[in-house]
Write a structure and sequence with these properties.
40% helix; 14 helices; four-stranded antiparallel beta sheet; 15 strands
Length: 393
């Protein structure tokens, strides 16, 4: 057989290898370590929602292809959620699209709205699929770096403005922000919105952690701000809020024109997915406020448990105001190489974390930062904290 001279992998994906999550989860399994790397809960969500999925399966709802935009019950529930929470009115038939998780929503939005040569300004560090999706669309990513200041990561609005050029097509936001845990303030988002209107930019905003905010932080959907509803694609997801990450039910809300564009790309990705789970998520979105209050309270206790344990182990800790991740600085432990630190941590302490540098274009800016997930059982976090104390010996 004649050897092929052309690389098999599409050159747009050449810079992307196996994800760090796969590597670190395999390392956790091989070493028997506690996996605080990948962000998924180790317990299921509400029993009544799981039973709703079982009921849908038994009733034959969703066992065959659901409608392309999503089942009507879920699209209506999403629209009701946006209205009740944020005063945002969306037509379930023309302005709501159900996707295979937020990851597909991101991919479909970027493939639909970004063309070759378009620039996409994204907040760095960013969820790893953002970079791959921009590359697949033929766009150019332009990172604007969030930096720690007085215990939280902040957005430099002057740097953001300077990043926008005549080639900029779209701003890609994420708040509450993974991996830093920052929640962009109303003032910050107002400035972003004014820039988007002034420069006639589209905005795609990943809000999957919208219900996971602490210490009285306010989640502000940028679509609620003046001039933004018609230029914003808002992405939501059931996985993080209801602790059923394997169901892969996400969605977008946007104007009819933007929804039509995103759907045009989405229909050639999964086409449809998660049929019976869509009916269950429709019920989940109607859970009483007590559920969300309990979720936040439980996660805040776990955040504090892990944050205090990490500080005692010698890390500098940036206590998050949202998501279920804690970012730490490892330099007080005598190193600034997050990759090497995370690869050695299982042997040293029996715990797995993620090096934040994988979420940066500017790898040096993220080199000393490491992310831990606290969406685990209390006893698991207590054991992890106990193990991490070995680092100080």
């Amino acid at each position: 057989m004649t050897a092929m001279t052309r690389p098999l992998l599409n050159r747009r994906l050449a810079e992307f290898g196996t994800t760090i999550f796969a590597e670190m989860s395999a390392l956790a399994a091989r070493t028997g370590s506690i996996n605080l790397g990948q962000g998924f809960p180790d317990t299921d969500g509400p029993e009544e929602i799981r039973e709703a999925a079982v009921r849908a399966l038994r009733d034959g709802r969703g066992n065959q292809y659901p409608p392309g935009p999503g089942v009507p019950e879920l699209r209506t529930a999403i629209a009701d959620h946006q209205r009740a929470r944020y005063g945002l009115e969306y037509d379930p038939d023309t302005e709501v699209l159900v996707t295979a998780g937020a990851t597909e929503a991101i991919a479909a939005a970027l493939l639909a709205l970004v063309g070759p040569g378009d620039e996409v300004v994204a907040l760095e560090p960013y969820y790893d699929s953002y970079a791959a999706c921009v590359a697949l669309a033929g766009g150019t990513r332009v990172p604007v770096t969030l930096r720690p200041h007085e215990g939280r990561y902040v957005l430099d609005l002057d740097e953001l403005r300077a990043a926008v050029t005549p080639r900029t097509r779209l701003l890609l936001l994420n708040t509450p922000h993974n991996p830093t845990g920052t929640v962009l303030t109303r003032a910050e988002l107002t400035a972003v919105a004014e820039l988007a209107v002034e420069r006639d930019l589209l905005v795609v905003t990943d809000e999957v952690y919208e219900h996971l905010v602490f210490d009285g932080a306010e989640h502000v959907p940028i679509a609620t701000l003046p001039g933004m509803r018609e230029r914003t694609v808002t992405i939501g997801s059931a996985g993080k809020t209801y602790s059923f990450t394997g169901w892969k039910v996400g969605w977008t809300t946007a104007s009819p024109e933007l929804t039509s564009a995103v759907r045009s790309a989405k229909q050639y990705l999964t086409y449809v997915s998660s049929g019976p789970f869509q009916y269950a998520v429709a019920e989940a979105l109607r859970l009483p406020e007590a559920y969300y209050d309990g979720l936040r309270a439980d996660l805040q206790v776990k955040r504090d448990l892990l944050s205090e344990g990490l500080a005692q182990a010698g890390f500098e800790v940036y206590r998050p105001r949202g998501t279920y991740f804690v970012t730490t600085d490892i330099r007080p432990l005598g190193t600034g190489d997050g990759f090497a630190f995370c690869r050695s941590l299982p042997e040293r302490a029996g715990v797995v974390a993620i090096p934040n540098a994988v979420f940066y274009d500017h790898r040096e800016a993220g080199a000393p930062f490491v992310r831990f997930a606290f969406c685990k059982r209390t006893d698991v976090l207590e054991e992890a904290v106990s193990r991490l104390k070995r680092l100080g010996r």
